[in-house]
Amino acid sequence: MDFRTKSDQQMFGVRATALLVQDGKVYLCKSSSGTYYCAGGAILVGETTEEAVKREVREEIACEVRVDHLAFVAENTFCQAGVNFHNIEFHYIVTPVTAPSPNMREDGEERVCEWVDIDKLDTIDLRPAFLKTELKNCDGKVKHIVNMER
Questions:
Q1: Within 10 Å of residue 138's Cβ, how many Cβ atoms?
Q2: What is the pLDDT of residues 65-85, one digit of tens each?
Q3: Closest residue by Cα to residue 17 from 48, 54, 47
């Protein structure tokens, strides 16, 4: 069981995501619509956020990571496919210990993953959008973000 609940067209969840950073680049997954996002997902009951981020990266891109530090705690609200989401998210800076898979299988489709230069994040459709600017300015301190994308 994970920390997600759905009521009508509203989804609430608690997630952990991995910001795989190496050599000034971040490893991102790309949806079929061209939107980029980080590996990650819902936290299981009884699991810490650090355990969740390691598990999600292992499941999604077959990569073992070292968790470096928590970078952002985000209250993220957005609409996707007619469903309104409200997520509490823990975004961790992680270092890959093994090479990540070049593809991710999610929702029945294969998705391409790639290293993207952090200085060029503002040129892509990245979700959540705050990562475009905040990741460049990450200083090792945890930052609270309220992100409203409606």
A1: 18
A2: 999 999 999 999 988 888 899
A3: 54
Token pair in block for residue 39:
């590996």
Closest CA to 13 of 75, 92, 91: 75
Distance, C-alpha 53 to centroid of its chain: 9
Nearest to 14 by CA among 71, 63, 53, 68: 53
Residues, the chain, total?
Answer: 150
Q: Where are the beta strands (DSSP E) in the chain?
A: 4-7, 10-22, 25-30, 36-37, 39-42, 65-80, 83-96, 103-106, 109-117, 143-149
DSSP state of 119: G
Contact 16, 53 (CB under 8 A): yes
pLDDT of the residue at 128 = 94
Q: Answer yes or no: are the C-beta atoms of 112 and 102 closer than 8 Å.
A: yes
